[in-house]
Input
Amino acid sequence: MKTLLLTGSNGFLGRNVLSLLRDNYRVLTLDLREADMICNLANNIFVSNERIDIVLHAAGKAHIKPKNESERQAFFDVNYQGTVNLCHSFEQAGKFPESFIFISTVAVYGRETGEIIAEDEPLNCTSPYGQSKIMAETFLTNWCNHNGVKLTILRPSLLAGKNPPGNLGAMIKGIESGQYLTINGGQARKSVLMVQDIARLVPLTANIGGVFNVCSDEHPSFYELESLILNQLKKKTIKKIPFWVASILAKSGDLLGGVIPFNTEKLNKITKPLTFNNEKAKSMLKWQPMSVLNNFEIV
Output
């Protein structure tokens, strides 16, 4: 049985895939706490005599909008420098993995709207999160080529699973508290991926390598996600506001600079489609993604 190193094992993704990975691999975990190897990769390398065959590098920083330069720099410290330090760990040990699977993000494209965006889209993201992931992708491409390591870059869309973080988690909390508002009938579609699919992709990608967008086939609408969450929370309705009212609130938020937690950027994310093309992963890896609408359980 091959040995797989899972970084970020206590994060949302790590917690959801760990038991599934153990069905096929001897798994070693690395995180800031409660792991086989305790290490802050942003500042250190780890030391291990273990032979590691596959790396699933899921450790990273996401889901916050930086408010100052220190918070902005943290993305580069964790997502880029953490990746560099991870690779330096293998260099120091003199033992390189056969395969390296990096969890990147569709945010690298820098798109706020668009439909069925493919892997050949330019990497134009300007946010610290997206830029730090682009830098890590570039570093790994060169490092893996130089050291004969098979590299897979997975660019997941919005991840769904139990107790999700980020925008999906905020939607669940808002609906549960009665503070969530649906706009324009929830028509906009977004690409979503069941987090368990990351574990399913590991054995499919480990010997092939490449860059892949990964998401479900459904690209559910906000209305479909809202309905699913309502049903699981056993709630009946969601408050609705027309688009013109939301536009006024968004412009007010733009003018007041954060005093109102709603602006044009957030309005666009809620009311415009952003979907990605998963055909490359499906055809090359013989992968069939899980249905989000049939498998997403919020708790």
